[in-house]
Specification:
With 289 residues, the protein is α/β, with parallel strands linked by helices. It is built from ten helices and ten strands. The protein has an eight-stranded mixed β-sheet with strand order 1-4-5-6-7-8-9-10.
Length: 289
């Protein structure tokens, strides 16, 4: 396979075929992230993509899932994306699920009919970074969208029949707006009602704007218990009809996995036990991105 730069994918795509159709991220301005800082956004040549699909046809016959890399493959022009999905369907007929990252800009560029066309061609899950439902925090981290845009685009993806997995970040608002961030994040998640929510705990990355703010003392990082309290507030304010809320990423101090609404009360009780010291938290040296 032909890869350029660092390749990133969601944890749930660990065993997927990773087909890189773009390099970098079309936004690439978030203050907390440096995943794609060294990669200029670019759409790869069709010949390279086709060669990678041919390679997968020979060497990836046991993998049932495929993930389109990098940061935002959904931003590809519709005709090119349809052609790529068609090639995947033809050459890799055993693949049952295709996924991609998505942001508000790329979703907005697609009509509901175009998104439905992609769904029919096998694009059945999209991963969107909400990070926070608090507009002040979204602006501070330079996310490029406010909460209402997040809600609108999240609902649009779901209306097209594409499953939606949303990422939120514990601690991203700092100490000052922690509770507001948590409450508003629950509000936005409830409005979108996605199939999946993944909670990560903020780990500062050197050479990012947020790291420099922390060094200068203008951003205050939450401690483990404060992260847990934020998680509790988010979960308390989140209503999902049949969604999976999990915070079992390597960055988290307490792994949880809850099917909402069924497991909500039990999960809140679990968090309360951890806050009262009845359950041990993951030590710092075991956390990772």
């Amino acid at each position: 396979m032909h890869y350029e730069g660092n390749i990133f994918r969601p944890p749930s795509e660990a065993n997927s075929i990773l087909l890189q159709v773009t390099t970098g991220c079309s936004h690439n301005k978030c203050t907390f992230c440096r995943m794609y800082k060294e990669s200029r956004f670019n759409i790869k040549d069709d010949s390279i993509i086709q060669a990678d699909i041919e390679f997968a046809a020979l060497h990836c016959r046991h993998q049932k899932r495929l993930f389109l890399c990098d940061g935002d493959a959904l931003i590809l022009p519709q005709k090119r994306l349809v052609r790529i999905l068609g090639e995947i369907n033809e050459k890799l007929p055993w693949v049952k699920r295709i996924g991609t990252y998505a942001n508000t800009k790329s979703i907005k560029l697609k009509s509901i009919e175009e998104l439905k066309e992609l769904r029919e061609l096998g694009l059945t899950i999209a991963y969107m970074g909400l990070e926070s439902g608090d507009d002040v925090t979204l602006k501070a981290i330079n996310k490029g969208a406010d909460s209402e845009q997040m809600i609108e685009m999240g609902k649009k993806i779901r209306a097209a029949g594409i499953k939606l997995s949303i990422t939120v970040i514990l601690g991203i608002a700092g100490k000052e707006r922690s509770a507001i961030h948590a409450e508003q994040t629950g509000r936005v998640l409830s409005n979108i009602d996605p199939e999946y929510v993944g909670g990560l705990s903020l780990m500062l990355t050197p050479e990012t704007d947020l790291y420099r703010q922390w060094e200068q003392g203008s951003f205050h990082l939450l401690g483990p218990e404060e992260m847990l309290e934020e998680l509790r507030i988010i979960l308390l304010h989140t209503e999902m009809t049949r969604g999976l809320f999990h915070a079992n990423h390597a960055s988290n101090y307490l792994p949880i996995k809850a099917r909402l609404p069924r497991d909500k009360r039990a999960t809140l009780e679990l968090i309360d036990k951890a806050l009262h010291g009845e359950i041990g938290l993951k030590p710092e040296y075991m956390r990772g991105l």
